[in-house]
Amino acid sequence: MNRLLAFVLIVVLSAGVVAGTSSWIFNDVKLGLDLKGGFEILYEAQPIEPGGTVTKDSLVETAKSLEARANATGVAEPEVTTEGTNRIRVKIAGVSDETKVRDILKKPAELTFRSARGCAADKGYCKIELRGSDFKENGASVHQTNLNAYEIGIKLKSAKQFAEVTREIAKLSATGQNQLAIYLDETQLSAPSVATEINQDEAVITGNFTREEATNLKNTINLGALPLKLTEKYTQSVGATLGKLSLQETVWAGVIGTVLILLFMMAFYRLPGIIASLCIIVYIWLLLLGFNLIDATLTLPGIAAFILGIGMAVDANIIMAERIKEEMRSGKSILSSQKAGSKSSFRTIIDAHVTTTIAALVLFFIGVGSVKGFAVILLLSIIISVLTNVFFSRLLLTLIIRSGIVKKKSLFGVKESEVRAL
Amino acid sequence: MRFSKFTEVSEGKFDFVKNARYFFIFSIIITVLGIITLGIHGLNYGVDFKAGSNVDIAVKKDLTGQKEQIEQYLKDNDFGSPTLTVGANRITVRFDEVLTDQKEKALKEGFAAKFDKEASAEVNTVDTEIARELQTNALYAIIVASIGIVIYVSIRFEWRFAIAAIVSLLHDAFIVISLFSIFKLEVNLPFIVAILTIIGYSINDTIVIFDRIRENLRFAKIKTAADVARLVNESIWQTLTRSINTVMTVVVAAVCLLIFGSASIQLFSLAILFGLVSGAYSSIFIASQLWLVLKNKQKPKAAVKSPAAS
After folding, report:
1. What is the pLDDT of residues A65-90, one digit of tens each?
2. Within an 8 Å CB–CB cutoff, is residue A366 touching chain B?
3. ipTM
4. Backbone angles phi, psi at A70, to 5 degrees
5. Residue A213 φ then ψ, to 5°
6. Which of A241, A305, A358 sits opposite B120 (nearest CB)?
7. Strand, helix or coil at B94?
8. CA dist., res. B184 & res. B263, Å (int)
9. Are A250 and B250 an interchain contact pair (Cβ–Cβ within 8 Å)?
10. Cβ distance B7 to B18 under 8 Å?
11. Is any Cβ of chain B less than 8 angstroms from the Cβ of A359?
């Protein structure tokens, strides 16, 4: 009686948890851009100066800059990852103004420091004195002075070059001439004046900056020092409406498929089928929860792995149910049939799962992009499948059989006429 | 054929082993056909494997009758004459060259303005270098995975099972590739994922039957090759309900995706469907019989050509 109570409790509890939290879990699943709209770009990085090399550091730095740049445009959660030795993958989902974001990302904005040296009176700052690549990577920083003003410290690669530039500029008239203007592309960001020659590799830009302005300028200088040149190698962009449509249709298809499978399981395997159905529902629920926990993104290839996972989950239940039926037909009691069937099916299921795990691991370590994503989801589904469709379903079946209320083999889809005498 | 009088298996049951050669021949024919069509027109590579841009436009209006207008529009606006497929709610434009950013934008906006305000587009652009890399990477992954599986199955079972399992999984992958070549269906990145899924399923399915053979071997008294053949037949029959039920359930899922799923995964679902059927077929009709062929080679004396007709 206790066992029956435990069985009912577990069933009610798990069904309750699944029903109560599934909408929350479902809404929390991060969708890939093929299901949500957005774009993905794979860049290949090359050193700006010929003969240079792409180091891991500079690649990571560039990726960070790209992320900052994407963030600056206000998009939600850009995903920037480095890949291999010289690639950066940028994924941005759910963008309304895609072209704008792409433009900002793609064009490594050129940062220049310009002066009016030798320029005609109406030409403004026409001479480029320094470029972004003359600055130390990530060398700019924001300080607060004792007067509560903000200033930006910058670091140069060569003190000599800076001394030369500042010496020449300092000679110019102090009335709007002796300035070293900072440009991002053709936009002037700031035009600090240079009073004396600065013979060191560090300098400070002062001005009436607000904290925000100072930070922006600092970021721009750091971005301008973007150490690598990027070329687009692969792009994928999906319209938001199209993505949403794909998702709706695919989810709908998945629901129909799952319901059909569960109906079949219950009709064909009766009691173990009902238990299997519950286990498969818990399995799907756990898999989605797992997605959220490891922060995985669901994409179309991910759905493929999901289908394979459900296939294997159903298979595990079918293998066990078939084994138990077989044992019953050979004349064993329900209890010993369940024992023997669970035991022998366990080995089979594990062997089948391990071979698939090997394939998934290889794909994870070798694959890139969506193949890797596929592998992650496959691995996750294998682990969860063993937990739910082997251990959980066995636990439930054992409990209900031992409780003694299951007396007929027909509850397992076995006809009495099929049972051989021992 | 089916009710051969002198069969060694139980009365009325299909003899999988005895009829193996027909299935071998069938598989070889498909494989040879696949090799021929692959040799003649290869695969219809989508944008993922051949540099260029692919534009998929989902439309609310039915534009099926307007193919010529769209072609004309593309020509007039300097887009050349790309391959154009117009479906009821989806239009696919395939450019052999990579679309520049400006052109991509111009196409999206121009199309929406002229044909359907609610059009939503998906654009894929791939550099040849990356495309080639993706392909070799996937191939490489399949080879390494196969080696891994061979090692595991050799340890848990024996090498003959491993060889048979790998041959049957490569068979399944190749059949799907062949079918895509024969019907000139487009091969893209999701296709690679589909092949990987098929391999995962195929090996899973085959191992279950092998497991049963191994288990039965443990208790069986094997004297002649005919005993082994009978054992293989029995093992397949014992696992048959499971094989059929499992493949039926996954096929149901794949068919649902094919019918109700999004158009962007239709080819993917089709590949999965082909693969599932092939995977189940090879597990039942090819893998174990192949193992038997290898097993019989082990004892050349016992290799019996056909079961004695007595």
Report:
1. 778 777 766 666 788 888 878 888 88
2. yes
3. 0.76
4. -65, -45
5. -60, -45
6. A241
7. strand
8. 17
9. no
10. yes
11. yes
